[in-house]
Amino acid sequence: MDFNYDVIVVGAGHAGCEAACASANLGSKTLLITMDMNKIAQMSCNPAVGGIAKGQIVREIDALGGFMGIVTDETAIQFRMLNRSKGPAMWSPRAQSDRMRFSEMWRHILENTENLSLWQDSVTELIFDEGQIEANVAKVANLADGEGTELSRPRVVGVKTALGATFRAKAVVLTNGTFLNGLMHVGRTMIEGGRCAEPASHGMSEQLRDLGFEVGRMKTGTPVRIDGRSVDWTQTIPQELEEDFHHFSYLPEVKRELRQRRCYNVFTSEETHNILREGLPDSPLYNGQIQSIGPRYCPSIETKIVTFADKTEHQLFLEPEGETTQEFYLNGFSSSLPMDVQIRALQTIPAFRNVQIYRPGYAIEYDFFDPTQLRHTLETKLVDRLFFAGQINGTTGYEEAAGQGLIAGANAALAVQGKAPFTLGRDQAYIGVLIDDLVTKGVDEPYRMFTSRAEYRILLRQDDADMRLTPLAYAVGLADEHRHNLMLEKLRLRDELIAFVEDCPVRVGQGNEILTAINADYGFAGTQSELTPLKEGCRLKALVLRPQLNIMMLSRYIPELAAQIGALADDRREEIVEAAEVLLKYDGYIKREQLIADKIQRLESVALGDRFDYASINALSTEARQKLERIRPATVAQASRIPGVSGRHQYTPAPFGTMNCFTWNIPNSDNIRLLDAQNINSEH
What we know:
The protein is of the alpha+beta class and about 675 residues long.
């Protein structure tokens, strides 16, 4: 048995699994410690991955060489592409997974990853370089007398566990989820735990607080679980299944193999709401029992009836937990009300007249740490080689956690190896937006990713995450050669198809014959969608750019195009065609947004580091000085994104075109022009 490692990852949730694999795949000897080997990558809440903006994160994880997309595809029991009625910047994949198989597959991956070991235990204490801590204490004393130098930071060197084991490491990644001092609520009943029937973790929060970390409390919740045998399915509304080529993983060999299952809709009523209102005096959310902040965008059912008191019904989603199980998740009915109140309220819904449940909904409070105490690498500013990822940073969601985990695990390994860090910008990935928001703005509620948080949405589409990120991942060692070669092949085939469409001539007579046939075949004739005839010959691109037309449709009428598409591999054909078509149709939007991103990028290269005494910059407000001192932004661009940071505005149109700027007059430095975050890209 070995007790010495390069990297230790604490917690085997979605963040911990990605962190451990990233570290190990970069060649670092890695240990993953988890309380329960049978609940690895547990889907604690709904058995679903992806959704609005979250789906983009999963595709980015896959493009970076992570595993969430692969596991989701191979355990999916339903797949949907959301927002298809909108532009491609909004398309977001989502899948229901078999919860048990999801966990089983992740364990299989972990157990078969080179350089990765597992240990079942609970971490109770971090080990630091004691000599360095003692030196810091002495320096603090000297500084009080007007002497001393800049403080050095302590370095984490290992962990201690509940079983009495001591593991040494050169870096540690904490992904503790909801387990740090976790407290569950069902009505007035309170139970310590990080998840139902699982113990909380104690000691680490207190230890980190003593080192100067700001610790807060947050709340999340989960709905009731229903026995499908007790549901009257005739009283539900089934959702149609989707079957198309879309997946989470870009690897063509990854397939959906499980039986696909529907989700179902039901609705609450006034009778339901009346029973819920009767239970409010015993609700932890309203009787003062819960003091922490929950997710505003995913409210409990009791919050819904209070906040939206005028609504007579709320939609609920009955989602299967697996391919064969009778267990169903009632999305939209998150609650911490007493168990009897939950059951009586459910019985007012026709489908649930005779409902049997596996367990009630409950709320959970847990410790998190202010993420402005982190660098973009997710290493803490207070302790060297200590990284945080997931809900410990105030986020919520499997996808947000996994994205952080991959970046934290990669950077822990790179730090140990003495290599340059790996970070992503806001114009490169939703993961970059997520981390920048956390370390720059902090959180005042559980953070969830939305497309609206990304100012470069058209650059961060789900269809091209591999083009954006796989070359970066390959360069650092996260993505293997197979994945990189697949990306290069896709790039070549995509560009060849684009070149063909741009160059292929269409004679006026030929074009009008095609348009007439399409009008007849697709029922466009005599409608607002009827295709107008050509007045002159054109290139094929002119037809592709018409909103009613697409490449696959046109290939039915143009043999040369059909041959071009037919030469593509069956398992990648539709993916490549879609990628080409998006670039053709949205070329102008993409170029405009890239131009804006490039201008902002200039400010990302202006490093600030620790060179400024922000407290002495009188041109800034007191709020701005305090925030700058606390956050210590790495670049001018990051400083401009801190809420409340503004100087004496000196607006100038150049060289940033329509973007407003202001100047900081910083003593002993050149004037640094900062973008006014409130005025950037206001049109988007």
